Amino acid sequence: MNPTMDPAKELMSPGHLACAGCGAAPAMRWALEALGPRTIVVMPACCWSIICGPYPHSALRVPTFHTAFETGAVTAAGIRASLDMQGLQDINVMVWAGDGGTFDIGFQALSAAAERNDDIIFVCYDNEAYMNTGIQRSSATPAGAWTTTTPGGKIRPKKNLVEIMAAHRIPYAATASIAFPDDFISKMTKAKGIKGTRFFHVLATCPTGWRIPSSHTVKLARLAVYSRAFPLYEVEDGERYTITVHPRDLPLRDYLEPQGRFRGLTKDQIEGLQEEVDRTWNRLTRLAGWSS
After folding, report:
1. Which one of 38, 51, 90, 114 is separated from 283 by 20 to 30 angstroms, measured CA to CA?
2. Is residue 7 part of a domain?
3. Residue 99 lies in a domain
4. How confident is the model at residue 249 (pLDDT cuts 50, 70, 90)?
5. 83-142 pLDDT, tens per residue?
6. How far is CA 266 from CA 236, 261, 270, in A?
7. Exposed, middle or buried by CB within 10 Å (0-12, 13-18, 19+), for 22?
8. Inside any domain, residue 9
């Protein structure tokens, strides 16, 4: 537990239905700690549709709207418009979607909301596959990863959604990780004070799909950042890039080898993935004007 959190003010209840070690559970806690009780959550189909609990029960102590896979952003935009008509501008509207409902099925509505600059916060908790329906690949699945639909390892690289969202010139886009709650909460608090479309890409480890022990959830999330596989940064107004957590230049191998989903990779394949990580990191540092 984050020692700064007051249990009496927790907006997420114990007894939810997440798997042991699910990274999506602490991700929700950090987000709600930053946003506070004046928040409405819109939840398209995803693991959290189950984690939240069956109607009429809910693990969240804020209003929660369950909606179709493809309609998270547009539902949130409608709720935002209704609140504005009632003069309730101080209520946050947050979409909470998995990678399927963000990168793939929900992207059309998300892109349209971003083009309109609708005043919503859209959070993708990314466990890098369709975990709730059987571990099928999504466009968020990294290259080389085993899924039930890529038994030999995914060929194509992971979609860079933060850069796609930044290209919409929205006021704020950021990556975050469950292993760095201070960075996560700081960014969400900052986003809370910004009007317009705000987008978060949160790495949320999945022991079941990643083939790791549940006790390694935070460790793997931390290794993703330190190996530069998942850099932590923010983009303001589509052009101002800031790296918020410095990596430790660990080899990508240290992140990949503990995960069963990468067990089939050869030495040459790991070296190829390392080269891609290095290219992506070098491009990010140029955009941020940052040097080690």
Report:
1. 114
2. no
3. yes
4. confident
5. 999 999 999 999 999 999 999 999 999 999 999 999 999 999 999 999 999 999 999 999
6. 39, 13, 6
7. buried
8. no
